[in-house]
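Quick one:
INPUT:
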């Protein structure tokens, strides 16, 4: 491991370490040609990998981001004394 990677690893939270470990596990599994024979399992791992990378990005930025934080929301407020 290079010195910069050592410094970065020292600064990781336990949650970041857990996420990075799982990302590495999935990436290693993706190197196995037998994985691609099971389309459902491959798609599940691809989806999990994308979610973990997004989570890691949120953790690195200090955000407490959730699964739906990247989605937009529309709110309509009707002001008045009540009623409809």
């Amino acid at each position: 491991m290079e010195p910069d990677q050592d410094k970065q690893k020292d600064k990781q939270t336990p949650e970041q370490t857990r996420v990075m470990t799982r990302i590495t596990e999935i990436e290693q599994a993706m190197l196995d040609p037998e994985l691609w024979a099971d389309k459902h399992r491959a798609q599940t791992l691809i989806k999990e990998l994308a979610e973990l990378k997004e989570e890691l990005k949120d953790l690195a930025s200090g955000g407490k981001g959730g699964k739906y934080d990247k989605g937009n929301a529309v709110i309509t407020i009707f002001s008045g004394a009540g009623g409809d």
